[in-house]
Design goal:
Mean pLDDT: 93
Shape: globular
Strand order of the largest sheet: 1-2-4-3-9-10-11-12
Number of helices: 5
CATH class: Alpha Beta
CATH superfamily: Alpha/Beta hydrolase fold, catalytic domain
Structural class: alpha/beta
Number of domains: 1
Low-confidence stretches: 2-10
Distance between the termini: 31 Å
Largest sheet: 8 strands, mixed
Helix content: 25-40%
């Protein structure tokens, strides 16, 4: 299914997306929901191939970022790769964060999804957005998978009190040979997440800026385990 803003009148969702329906019902009849957030320069099709390989109970929606860079190329926020490091537009990141929050609410209503079983899976810039959302609106989420991302210094003043993020499941993974977002950024993110008292599952791999087979196997098992666990109380 291919959804677009305005495709069903008043039920329109605020971002373009692709949907993969659950293949196995849940006892409540309300499917758990996972949103896939791509990296800079990609689109909603980039991570969509993961959808059929994830837990069969999941409703998977793969989102397109709102900023157009070129044909079939989108971003959640503008970033410049400078010799001195990254320079981002934090106001764009915040706007995308708010758009994703709005999307979650609308998608729960549209698909009658379980509001207590909402997950984010982000790669690269999508991982940055996933972590920014988790650290500012943790009550909306049951867990976050952040692959090859980072926590920008610009985001740190937005982070809520640790009492709100305590116990939030976070799967953080990074390649030790990553030449796009260096591995050191994962090492910087780790203590921030530990201070926030999230339930951190931290993995590093012998790989570049990518989602390797072992990474996917580990995150998939992590996700299924959390779907089988008692729901987190926000």
């Amino acid at each position: 299914m291919d959804g677009t803003p305005g495709d069903e009148g008043g039920d329109a969702l605020p971002l373009v997306y692709l949907a993969h329906e659950p293949r196995q019902p849940t006892p409540t009849g309300k499917p758990p929901l996972i949103l896939l957030l791509h990296g800079v320069g990609a689109n909603e099709r980039d991570l969509f191939s993961l959808a059929p390989q994830l837990d069969s109970r999941l409703l998977t929606l793969s989102l397109r970022a709102p900023l157009t860079r070129g044909p079939n190329s989108y971003a959640w926020f503008t970033v410049a790769f400078l010799p001195t490091g990254f320079k981002i537009a934090p106001e764009q990141l915040d706007a995308s964060r708010r758009r994703v929050i709005e999307f979650i609410s609308a998608a729960i209503k549209r698909y009658d999804a379980d509001p207590q079983r909402v997950y984010l899976l982000g790669f690269s810039q999508g991982a940055i957005l996933s972590l920014a959302t988790a650290l500012t609106e943790p009550e909306l989420l049951a867990g976050v998978i952040a692959l090859s991302g980072r926590i920008p210094p610009e985001v740190e003043p937005w982070i809520v009190a640790p009492e709100r993020t305590a116990g939030l499941p976070v799967f953080l993974a990074h390649g030790r040979q990553d030449s796009v977002i260096p591995y050191e950024w994962a090492e910087r993110a780790r203590p921030i997440l530990e201070r926030q008292r999230v339930a951190l599952d931290y993995h590093t791999y012998d790989m570049e800026h990518q989602i390797g087979a072992q990474t996917f196997a580990n995150l998939s098992a992590w996700l299924t385990a959390h779907l089988d666990a008692p729901r987190r109380e926000g």
